[in-house]
Design goal:
Blueprint: E1 12-16, E2 24-28, E3 35-39, H1 48-74, H2 82-95
Antiparallel strand pairs: 1-2, 2-3
Length: 99
């Protein structure tokens, strides 16, 4: 059984801010619309690397969910491939220490 995620819930999106020109943000969906990350370069707007980083951050909850599915599947086979250990390690890194 998977416990509830501890990260900010909701769909995360990377997009240009409606309120600050030249700022690229990662934001949750309604009702909170919480801004999780901001990228604005050095005042001259984000570069391609910062936009790619924002998109990666926005995809993190979806990637974690996919990896959890892979882990559940791998835990039920006799000899999982080494890639499944990498998935387990990525999940642990994303979820942090268990208390």
């Amino acid at each position: 059984m998977n416990e509830a995620p501890k990260h900010t819930p909701g769909e995360w999106t990377a997009r240009w801010s409606k309120y600050r020109e030249g700022e690229y943000i990662v934001q949750t969906d309604a009702p909170s619309n919480r801004v999780l990350a901001k990228f604005d370069g050095d005042g001259d707007g984000p570069d391609a690397e910062e936009i790619a980083s924002a998109r990666l951050i926005a995809a993190a909850p979806d990637m974690l969910e996919a990896l959890l599915g892979v882990k559940t599947w791998a835990d039920n086979i006799a000899s999982p491939a080494p890639v499944f250990q990498a998935a387990r390690e990525a999940i642990a890194k994303a979820q942090g220490p268990r208390s």
